[in-house]
Specification:
heterodimer; A: alpha+beta; 5-stranded mixed β-sheet; 68% helix; rod-shaped; B: mainly alpha; globular
């Protein structure tokens, strides 16, 4: 049984009693008032936010009581409703009873006020419990989303690590072993001219060895080619994301040595840049976007800045469209990125000044320790 | 006003609705035996008959919502960029227009044919118009209350209700004939107050405060029905 159901059942019972009382008198004014109270109750049933309309009920009851000398017992309903909805100012209506002092009436009205108050408190507590439950459910769903995001990120990091390692191996083979072998091959080809006077059998063996070496070189070249990553990695990946941004031109600047940044940090930086640019595209209506990547020996700092805020922050209409305003919490996407950045020991902050900036800072020391 | 136009066309193209809203009221007003002393009729005589015709006409005119519910058109309408309030308001308006014209016609014909005074003609127009509004909103509340989307069973249920309301409201015979408190049972439906208002105006011959109170009660009924049936179960 819900308190709201009790509230409406008590109204139905009360109005039925009023109707039966009206039958005894047959006075149309009484019926009019009763029906008016029914209409007002239905009105509040339809539009629950219009609680203050209980004052209209009270005023009508007092006015009709004054004009037609009706019994004030009818105040039971509006006072009961007022206490239920938490409109405690309605108790001021009791002042009227000073001029028409009836102890029994006061007791009845106080009882109705108390029952309305307790029913209202019950409903309020119930609503609070529902709100808590909703909040817990929201947190649960958010954590679930975060877990999914982190799982996906982990898989991406694994993939990127493998790709990066293959790229490193390919680079090593190409730059070191490959060059040495090619140099040896060229030397052997030069030596071939000096062996013209040797036996035919020796030459044949030599040529055969050269052919095999040639085939080997081809295979190494092919392997190096196959090892190399097709997709961009690291700073190239960030540059590619900036280049592909459709809304406006993105100025991408890199400062410092980015070679020391581990692969899982690139993954976080990519996610951060993607999310920031998506927000810019969706909400900011920016005319320019600037992306700065600073790699120092101690920290990596990614700053995504756009003029979307200053461009339309003056009008109240545009303020509604701001992705994040002062004092507001981040959206789901940026919040998840913040969790991921925090997991690496870093920090993600949002600065709303003349421009809108998302700043991601990840320490390098902790990465080395990790 | 597309919904208004189509609801109006749907309402008036039905033969039963045409009979109820055009032929029957005019027939009742112009048929002399109804208006003789001790003529045909019950309760308030032809006035009661007209009230029953108005209530039936209101039900027939207000079937558009039920039809929309039963054939699934409501889903398409709700998908369109239109609010539920506007859909409902235009439906109520489309049902009301022919019935208000009918009430006007009845009062004008009564004024011409039966030498009604201007006050009586106006009272008839006012009373029937307000009864029309109350009946339409009652029908809409009935449609939204009725759990089944079946037009026939809803119609059968409403006809039963109409007969009951007519009986307890004093349309078929005076409510004074009921024993004890049953005399006032009909007060929870608008026709009781329409009969009271018409009785009052026929007795005193002019529009009195009590007549206004009865009309006010009927208007309150309309608001109550609208609030109850306004959006309930329309989806």
């Amino acid at each position: 049984m819900k308190p709201s159901v009790c509230f409406y059942i008590s109204h139905v019972v009360g109005f039925s009693l009023m109707f039966s009382l009206w039958i005894q008198s047959g006075e149309a004014t009484g019926f009019f008032l009763s029906l008016f109270l029914v209409v007002m109750t239905l009105f509040r049933f339809r539009l629950p936010n219009w609680k203050m309309t209980v004052f209209v009920d009270i005023a009508s009851c007092l006015l009709l009581a004054f004009l037609w000398d009706m019994p004030l017992y009818i105040l039971v309903f509006p006072l009961f409703s007022a206490m239920y909805f938490g409109v405690y100012w309605a108790l001021l209506a009791m002042i009227y009873l000073v001029f028409d002092f009836q102890p029994l009436l006061i007791v009845v009205l106080l009882l109705s006020c108390l029952s309305g108050f307790f029913l209202g408190r019950w409903e309020m507590e119930r609503q609070e419990r529902w709100q808590l439950r909703d909040q817990s459910a929201n947190k649960y769903y958010e954590l679930e989303n975060l877990q999914n995001d982190l799982t996906i990120a982990l898989e991406q990091v694994e993939r990127m690590t493998v790709v990066a390692e293959r790229t490193r191996i390919a680079r090593d083979i190409h730059d070191n072993a490959g060059h040495e072998i090619i140099a040896s091959y060229i030397s052997l080809q030069t030596i071939r001219n000096l062996l013209e006077h040797e036996d035919a059998e020796v030459l044949e063996l030599y040529d055969s060895a050269l052919e095999r070496l040639d085939a080997g070189v081809d295979k190494i070249r092919e392997s190096v080619h196959n090892f190399s990553a097709v997709t961009a990695l690291g700073v190239d990946a960030l540059a590619e994301i900036c280049q592909r941004f459709p809304a406006c031109k993105v100025n991408f600047h890199v400062h410092g040595d980015t070679l020391k940044i581990p692969i899982y940090v690139w993954n976080v930086l990519e996610a951060c840049l993607n999310e920031s640019l998506t927000n810019v595209g969706k909400h900011a209506q920016a005319t320019y976007v600037k992306v700065d990547l600073d790699a120092t020996p101690h920290i990596v700092r990614l700053c995504v800045e756009n003029d979307g805020v200053s461009g339309f922050s003056d009008t109240s209409e545009n303020k509604k469209e701001l992705p994040i305003r002062r004092g507001e919490t981040l959206g789901n996407g940026l919040r998840n990125i913040r969790y991921r950045v925090s997991a690496t020991g870093g920090n993600l902050s949002v600065d709303v000044g003349n421009t809108f900036r998302v700043i991601c800072v990840i320490p390098m020391k902790s990465m080395e320790v990790g | 006003m597309t919904i208004f136009r189509y609801a109006l066309l749907r309402g008036i193209r039905s033969p039963l609705s045409l009979i109820c809203n055009c032929i029957l009221p005019i027939f009742i007003v112009v048929f002399p035996p109804f208006w003789r002393e001790n003529g045909i009729g019950f309760g308030l005589g032809p006035f009661s008959l007209l009230m029953m015709v108005v209530m039936s006409g209101a039900y027939l005119m207000s079937q558009s919502i039920l039809v929309d519910k039963s054939d699934g058109a409501i889903v398409r309408i709700m998908a369109a960029p239109i609010t539920l309030r506007r859909y409902f308001a235009e439906n109520v308006l489309s049902s009301m227009v022919p019935l208000v014209i009918q009430s006007m016609l009845v009062s004008v014909l009564g004024f011409i044919l039966h030498d009604w005074t201007a006050a009586l003609s106006f009272a008839v127009f006012l009373c029937y118009t307000v009864l029309t509004i109350a009946s339409i909103t009652m029908s809409f509340a009935w449609h939204s209350l009725f759990l089944s989307n079946d037009k026939e069973s809803s119609g059968a249920g409403f006809v039963t209700l109409l007969l009951l309301v007519a009986m307890v409201g004093g349309l078929t015979f005076p409510v004074e004939a009921f024993p004890g408190p049953l005399e006032y049972v009909g007060a929870i439906f608008p026709p009781y107050w329409a009969v009271r208002a018409m009785t009052n105006v026929l007795d005193v011959g002019y529009i009195s405060g009590n007549f206004g109170l009865d009309i006010g009660v009927m208007l309150l009924f309309s608001v109550a029905y609208l609030l109850y049936g306004g959006s309930r179960k329309i989806q």
